[in-house]
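Hey, I was hoping to borrow your eyes for a little while. I've dropped the whole record in just underneath, so have a look:

——
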Amino acid sequence: MATLGLSTACGQQNFENRDANGFLEVTETPGVIILDVRTAAEYADGHLPGALNIDQANSNFIDKVKASLPTDKTLALYCRSGRRSANVAGILANEGYKCVNLMGGIIAWKDAGLPVTTDTYEVDVFKTKSGKTVKFHALVHASIRMEYDGMEIQIDPVTKLGQRTIDCTAMPKADCIFVTHEHGDHFDKEAIRQLSGDKTHLITNKRCADMLGYGEVMVNGQSSKFNNISIEAVPAYNTSEGRQQFHPKGRDNGYILTIDGLRIYIAGDTEDIPEMADIKDIDIAFLPCNQPYTMTPEQLVKAAKTIKPKVLFPYHYGNTDLSGVPAQLKGDNIDVRIRHYE
């Protein structure tokens, strides 16, 4: 049963409480963001599928939430027993968020026989035109794992980036692997080997196919299909003076995937190039932001205003400060989601 308070005045609630089954209904509503407010250790030990983790005990908790989660989205919050998340729900409701709290926390969720996962990567879930689910896992930097209708799709997988390692052997074999270009933070022969099975299909640009000795080559402007996924290879290159050598025009790919009506733009390494004006009807866009190799935050905002995706994931951003991006796009009806793609 749900209880809904109208305001915090006189001790009343300004958020909604739901039991486990009611909370499940909320989380299955498109656009709802599941927020785990426990510690990172608690989260790693088991959490709700698709949940983001921001520890409410962090001194900058509110700033982190505001920087990454739009106020026009419903937040479904939980903790261990429901106490921490109830406190946070009241605070965030005062900041303009619509909040739903899980009564009894993850303990009640488990008691109801509902699923938990130990997947520690951030996951975003979308619905296609016919109601099928597409899941995006934020792995690292430019590496994205996608799940759709029983298929596993990997974008620019790598096994190591700086001091971080990614255990590709712990992931299912990929049905399709996309590689945008030859740089080591995008093209990793070992990652491709670990993720490849007998039926894995590789789509890449010519340089990477030549280096591997196999793969379906796509060039800018070319279209293809894999199962029921439509694929377009689009340009990705540098335009600024002194940067063209990083990603010369015509060599590398971005990709637009159309999955049951859901259009996804994975930009690869690029600046805000003129060809972006021709990219239309994008539901989800992954745009890079780390100067001097890709875009500055200003270029990222310009590119987003040009493409007008419904949801924007900045990625490939390293140490670039993205905190001002959501506010700059607030009036453009773009849902900016900043995930841990360091």
About this structure: The radius of gyration is 21 Å. Residues 83-94 form the longest helix (12 residues).
